[in-house]
């Protein structure tokens, strides 16, 4: 049993052979976190973000169909009756905070969390022989990005800076829906 445990410990313990390259810390690291401190050595983890794709998207919280089967225009009053919360979140691998990066690099209108309102009324006229789709929600973005993680061991107690010796620690592809503060109705015909 002891031999089996020592073999398992060897296979799961990182070594220099499988660690990332040690290189000068790159530009663009936007966040440093102290993740360990022992015997006068601080271990810091830094994050650098890269945008892979951004697609604008209307995030629907409520929708209604308005059918006018007559030969005359029909006036409708509709109201949002359902609320939904949309949130930005890093999906896996690291504890980086994507909010500041997204607002600086995708849109200043992004909010980390947005809950849509209820009871917002809209009056509209539906043309003859038309189906109108009325959707209530917020403008947002469908964002694919990546977080690069870098680690630094320091003994001087200072936060790492560009040029310190960093170890490549991982590349973490992420996906999120990023809501904005722009909320309202969107109308289209079917």
Could you state the oligomeric state of the chains shown?
Answer: single chain
The SSE order reads: HEEEEEHEEEE
User: Proportion of β residues?
Assistant: over 45%
Low-confidence stretches: 1-18
Largest sheet: 5 strands, antiparallel
Percent range for helical residues?
under 10%
Average pLDDT confidence is 88
> Using only CA atoms, what is the Rg?
25 Å
Please tally the β strands and state the result. 9
Q: What is the count of DSSP helices, taking H or I runs of 4+ residues?
A: 2
Which terms would index this structure?
190 residues, mainly beta, 5-stranded antiparallel sheet, two-stranded antiparallel ribbon, 2 helices, 9 strands, disordered N terminus
Task: Give a structural overview.
The chain is mainly beta and 190 residues long. It has 2 helices and 9 strands. It has a 5-stranded antiparallel sheet, covered by helices on one side. Strands 4-7 form a two-stranded antiparallel sheet. It has a two-stranded antiparallel sheet with strand order 5-6. Strand 2 and strand 3 form a beta hairpin. It starts with a helix and ends with a strand.
SSE topology:
Layout: H1 2-12, E1 22-24, E2 31-38, E3 41-68, E4 74-79, E5 85-87, H2 99-105, E6 113-115, E7 121-126, E8 130-154, E9 165-189
Antiparallel strand pairs: 1-9, 2-3, 3-8, 4-7, 5-6, 8-9
């Amino acid at each position: 049993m002891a031999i089996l445990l020592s073999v398992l410990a060897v296979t799961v313990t990182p070594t220099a052979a499988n660690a990332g390259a040690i290189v000068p810390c790159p530009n663009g690291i936007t966040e440093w976190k102290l993740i360990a401190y022992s015997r006068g050595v601080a271990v810091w983890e830094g994050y650098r973000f890269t945008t892979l794709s951004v697609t604008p998207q209307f995030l629907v919280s409520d929708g209604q169909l308005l059918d006018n089967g007559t030969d005359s225009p029909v006036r409708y009053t509709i109201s949002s009756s359902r609320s939904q919360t949309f949130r930005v979140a890093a999906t896996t691998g690291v504890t980086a905070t994507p909010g500041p990066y997204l607002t600086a690099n995708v849109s200043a209108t992004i909010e980390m969390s947005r809950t849509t309102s209820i009871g917002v009324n809209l009056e509209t006229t539906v043309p003859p022989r038309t189906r109108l789709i009325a959707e209530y929600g917020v403008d947002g973005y469908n964002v694919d990005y990546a977080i690069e993680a870098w680690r630094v061991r320091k003994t001087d107690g200072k936060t790492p800076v560009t040029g310190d010796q960093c170890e490549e620690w991982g590349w973490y592809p992420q996906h999120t829906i990023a809501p904005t503060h722009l909320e309202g109705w969107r109308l289209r015909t079917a």
